[in-house]
Design brief:
The chain has about 120 residues and is an all-alpha fold. α6 packs across α7. The chain is elongated, with a radius of gyration of 20 Å.
Length: about 120
């Protein structure tokens, strides 16, 4: 299924995620009433479509993005397109959306009861 097909039914996306309208649309800065209109068939502006895709389809936490991140991406796209394409391909190949260090969990230490006694 193409991404554009997924976005044509935001109500279905919202229901699959188990969110109410206020939760779902609020995550991308749209009011509940505005979201209701989009779910009823009103044309969705491109920026809202992009945010919906990033947050609810691609599952990207946009609260972790900064202006500097965007500027680096723009710089690479415009000044070093070959490097941008290579990095994008490598990132897509890992299947990860966040760096490994950001999701690492501390190792659990096991202490035997006998060692304490």
């Amino acid at each position: 299924m193409k991404t554009s097909d997924k976005l044509s039914n935001p109500r279905e996306i919202r229901r699959r995620l188990g969110l109410n309208q206020q939760q779902f649309w609020g995550m991308i800065g749209v009011t509940q009433s505005g979201g209701s209109r989009y779910e009823s068939g009103r044309a969705m502006p491109k920026p809202v479509q992009h945010l919906l895709r990033l947050v609810h389809v691609d599952r990207i936490d946009i609260s972790r993005l900064s202006r500097a991140d965007y500027e680096v991406i723009s710089y690479l796209k415009n000044s070093r397109p070959e490097m941008y394409k290579k990095l994008r391909t490598q990132a897509a190949g890992t299947g990860r959306t966040t760096p490994r260090a950001a999701v690492a969990t501390p190792a659990k230490r096991s202490v035997s009861i006998a060692a304490r006694a």
